[in-house]
């Protein structure tokens, strides 16, 4: 039996056959003209998402079974993630594509450093999309200005009940 080194609830309950490392192998690069690197901008549901390529072409990406079910644990597709897509060769004007690989942030950094692959537009889409939420722009820059607020003391109305305590008296909590 495998030794439980991490501890906690449910750590041993996961099946060992379904656990694997994320960095399994070399970085997958596009090998032909039908394979491109793109950015997911919107999740549409029903296994589809909106994708923009580096040429600013809008496509509908289909999420196949390799990214569903048990495999979804290590291949989660979210909005503003960088993926490699495969275009359909039978479409004259590309409208649909299949998602083939999801790149981790470390792999995106490796792609940026490669001179033959240009993904600057995709990275700007990814960063720009992270600052938008439901059609509204989220401003991450804060300007703090010190303002002097004048506080005026307020006089409370005098109540009819006065509470006086003599030094020798004790307060019984039950009487309150």
Structure description:
The chain has 176 residues and is an alpha+beta fold. 11% of the residues lie in helices and 22% in strands. The chain has helices at 105-113, 120-130; strands spanning 35-45, 48-53, 58-62, 82-87, 96-102, 132-133, 136-137. Strand 6 (132-133) and strand 7 form a beta hairpin.
Strand line-up in the sheet with most strands: 1-2-3-5-4
Give me the secondary-structure category. alpha+beta
Shape: elongated
Helicity, as a percent range:
10-25%
Distance between the termini: 63 Å
Q: In angstroms, what is the radius of gyration?
A: 30 Å
Please report the number of helical segments.
Answer: 2
Overall pLDDT, averaged? 78
As a percent range, the share of strand residues is 15-25%
Number of strands: 7
What sequence of helices (H) and strands (E) makes up the elements? EEEEEHHEE
What is the CATH superfamily label of the domain at 27-132?
Answer: Nucleic acid-binding proteins
- Level-2 CATH architecture of the domain at 27-132: Beta Barrel
Q: What oligomeric state do the depicted chains represent?
A: single chain
Under CATH, the topology of the domain at 27-132 is which?
OB fold (Dihydrolipoamide Acetyltransferase, E2P)
CATH class of the domain at 27-132: Mainly Beta
The main sheet comes to: 5 strands, mixed, barrel
Low-confidence stretches: 133-137
């Amino acid at each position: 039996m495998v030794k439980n080194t991490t501890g906690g609830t449910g750590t041993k309950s996961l099946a060992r056959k379904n656990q694997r490392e994320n960095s399994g192998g070399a970085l997958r690069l596009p090998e032909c003209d039908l394979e491109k690197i793109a950015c997911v901008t919107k999740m549409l549901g029903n296994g589809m998402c909106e994708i923009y390529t580096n040429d600013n072409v809008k496509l509908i990406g289909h999420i196949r079974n390799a990214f569903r079910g048990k495999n979804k644990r290590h291949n989660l597709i979210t909005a503003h993630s960088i993926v490699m897509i495969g275009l359909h060769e039978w479409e004259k004007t590309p409208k649909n594509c299949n998602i083939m690989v999801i790149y981790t942030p470390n792999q995106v950094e490796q792609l940026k450093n490669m001179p033959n692959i240009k993904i600057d537009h995709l990275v700007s889409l990814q960063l720009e999309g992270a600052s938008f939420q439901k059609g509204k722009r989220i401003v991450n820059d804060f300007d703090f200005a010190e303002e002097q607020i004048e506080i005026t003391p307020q006089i409370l109305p005098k109540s009819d009940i006065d509470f006086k305590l003599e030094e020798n008296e004790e307060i019984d909590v039950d009487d309150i």
